[in-house]
Amino acid sequence: MHTNRISPARKIILGLALVLSLVLAGCESITLTNLTPASMPENPSQIYTFTMRVTPRTNTILRASITPHMVVDGQHYPMKPSAMGEGLYEFEYQLPAGRDEIAYYYLVNYTIEGNNVQNSQETYTDVARVKIVHRYVLSLEVNRGPVGSRISVLGRGFTRQDTISFDGVPVRTEYESPNALSFFVPPMSPNRNYQVTLTSTAGNSPVGTFRIDPSSVTVFPTMLNLRTGQQQLLSFTLPNAAPPGGTLLDVTTDIPESVIMPEVIVPQGQNQVTVNVEGAKPGTGSLFLKGYGSGEIAIPVTVTAR
Questions:
Q1: CA atoms within 13 A on the CB side of 223
Q2: Which pLDDT does position 1 carry in this prediction?
Q3: How far is the CA of 91 from the CAs of 45, 100, 104, 118, 299, in angstroms?
Q4: Total of domains in the chain
Q5: Is position 2 within any domain?
Q6: I need a labelling partner for 19 at 20 to 30 A (CA). Which of 71, 161, 204, 282 fits?
């Protein structure tokens, strides 16, 4: 029998090939999933939970060797297994004073084994950022009302850039203070609930649900005939007294250059308001009030030259 011996050079090449195969296997055999949101509401303790899922893709990884870390400012913080489920790891990070953003990444060390050879590996995520949001929503003042009602939202850290939306549609929002906003119930379909959301540069925050109740309004006169520069009184009457903050009647027109009129708000505790409507450039069209009666009230308007 004749036996070929493996040369030392070939042994080195085969060894390097084995190590390289283990390295490549390590790159493909584990997945890191960042479960931490991009923004978190501020809390008094300034401690924030960071969560990651580690998913081994092959059984060549020694599970006992998996050692995850969270890396912030060059510091490595060991993560602990989470009680929320297998493969989940958490770290409670104490935010340093004066900061409202955290840049971090996850690093995992582990060992893979093949052909009785063990090789230490590591993998890591891209750098991610978390923004600490210095506001939170406590509650809606009420959760139902008719179109035009002014509703307060209580919370903390509100800014003038914050807006309220109904099912993703922005509505008229008023900034009152860092602890309060208000919005006017929009002229949308009644007898249903809408998802209310607070939107700002820091992201979206759910506020709750709001139900729009049906309502009606009486308008007198039911049509306007004006000359340029002439004024006429127009009255709006609600079936019930306006709630605190008043009721906004969002009147629009298809002839904006022909009609001059102020904003229409029924004062709280009253059920009627009267405004002056002035004719401007000659034109024919209508005033429109949505969200009342069958859905829209139209008041025909004709403006003629003086």
A1: 7
A2: 40
A3: 15, 18, 12, 28, 63
A4: 3
A5: no
A6: 71
128 and 14 inside one domain: yes
* CA-CA-CA-CA torsion sign (176, 181, 185, 191): negative
Residues 142 and 104 in one domain: no
Q: Is the dihedral of CA 235, 236, 239, 245 positive or negative?
A: negative
Q: Which of 213, 238, 261 is the last residue of a domain?
A: 213
User: 268: how many CB neighbours lie within 10 A of its CB?
Assistant: 13
H or E element that contains 93: strand 88-94
- Evaluate if residue 7 carries a pLDDT over 80: no
Q: What is the pLDDT of residues 270-302, one digit of tens each?
A: 999 999 999 999 999 999 998 887 788 999 999
Its domain, for residue 50, covers 8-133
Q: Is the pLDDT of residue 92 over 80?
A: yes
- Tokens 């906003």 correspond to 181
Q: Scan for tokens 């690093």, then name that residue.
A: 107
pLDDT of 206: 87
Q: pTM for the complete prediction?
A: 0.57
Cα–Cα distance, 52 to 87 (Å, whole number): 8
Q: Side chain identity at 246, as an amino acid letter?
A: G
Q: State the Cα–Cα distance between residues 229 and 280, nearest whole angstrom.
A: 6
> Does 88 lie in the same domain as 16?
yes
Residue 217 DSSP symbol: -
What's the mean pLDDT in 96-121? 90
- Same domain? For 292 and 198 the reply is no
Q: Which of 133, 150, 176 is the last residue of a domain?
A: 133
Residues 82, 53: Cα–Cα separation, whole Å: 10
